[in-house]
Write a structure and sequence with these properties.
heterodimer; A: alpha/beta; about 20% strand; B: alpha/beta; 6 strands
Chain lengths: ~170, ~150
């Protein structure tokens, strides 16, 4: 004989704590969300970063020059993409260098394969802000030649300490 | 209250999924300023070569080139450094055609070896001073490595 189920009439579950937690998490994720920067918006490539073992050092947010070495997904050519995080310094660098092509001047990422221009960019960035730090964000599929040239540029500009951007392995 | 909760959860899932969890990390690199020449004793020099096709070789001082696997690099670097007690200079030479991925892997292995070396030298009360250089391969070395 089947058990007779008692009908639970007017059963109410208090949802308030659940909603509290949900909103707490929601606000947390909303505040920690990082939105795409202009540079990321402009870029027509994806960088496959090389993997390295875990390191606690993170990429600084301020006074940073990020040199991306990447393959354009449309035209398939390799180039350097020069990005200065600090707006004021970027304006100074662009003003000091008339040789930057007109169509590149307003962009957050200055695309170049010209080592002479790259060296001028690095030097001017250091002039604009001496605390400027340099990081190389490169695609792992690109040959070492590109990085060797870039390191020569850093060496000539006296920017002898820089960072390689990597991804945590595992 | 149900519609409010619905929307709240919808937004919560959106922000949770769109959050980027693997933020990039960095590996610090220091290169010597221009025009620095350091005299090196050959007996205190360990050279590591990465050929364009990704094969790795090592050379101690004046000895011949010997092939080595990526997985053995760390152990080898530790052994050699302990052998000459802190005076070893590590030179990493990369062929221009080698992939960047491999370069970072090598640097990573050497960084990991550094931890062991520092620990082992501390047991012998020696303070570790790292001497390391990353250089392009010379034409002569390229030629010598081609037929190995």
């Amino acid at each position: 004989m089947p058990k007779i189920k008692k009908k639970r009439v007017g059963f109410v579950l208090d949802m308030t704590p659940l909603v509290d937690i949900a909103f707490l998490l929601l606000t947390f994720f909303m505040f920690t969300a990082k939105f795409k920067s202009q540079a990321e918006n402009e870029q027509k490539f994806t960088i496959k970063r090389p993997q390295a073992s875990a390191d606690t050092s993170k990429l600084p947010d301020q006074n940073l020059v990020l040199v991306k070495v990447a393959i354009d997904s449309v035209t398939n050519d390799t180039a350097y993409y020069y990005n200065i995080s600090d707006e004021a310094a970027k304006a100074k660098v662009v003003a000091a260098l008339p040789e930057i092509p007109a169509e590149q001047r307003d962009k957050a990422l200055i695309k170049t394969a010209d080592l002479i221009l790259l060296e001028k960019l690095v030097k001017q960035s250091r002039v604009a802000n001496i605390k400027m730090r340099f990081a190389v964000d490169g695609d792992k599929r690109i040959s070492f030649k590109w990085y060797q040239d870039l390191m020569n540029v850093f060496q000539k500009s006296n920017a002898t300490v820089f960072n390689f951007v990597t991804e945590k392995r595992g | 209250m149900t519609p409010l909760v619905d929307i709240a959860f919808l937004l919560l899932t959106f922000f949770m999924l769109s959050t980027n969890l693997n933020t990039p990390q960095v590996m610090e690199m220091a290169i010597p300023p221009e025009n620095t020449n350091i005299d090196v004793k050959e007996s205190e020099l360990m050279m590591l070569f990465v050929r364009d096709d990704g094969k790795i070789f090592y050379k101690l001082g004046n000895e011949a080139y010997t092939a080595i696997e990526m997985k053995d690099i760390r152990k080898f670097a530790v052994e050699q450094n302990i052998r000459v007690k802190n005076r070893l200079i590590t030179g990493l030479k990369i062929g221009t055609g080698a992939k960047y991925e491999l370069v970072i892997k090598m640097l990573d292995e050497l960084n990991l070896a550094e931890v062991d070396i520092t620990a082992k030298l501390r047991e012998e009360a020696i303070k570790r001073e790292r001497r390391f250089a990353l250089n392009p391969m010379t034409d002569k070395e390229k030629e010598e490595l081609r037929n190995l």
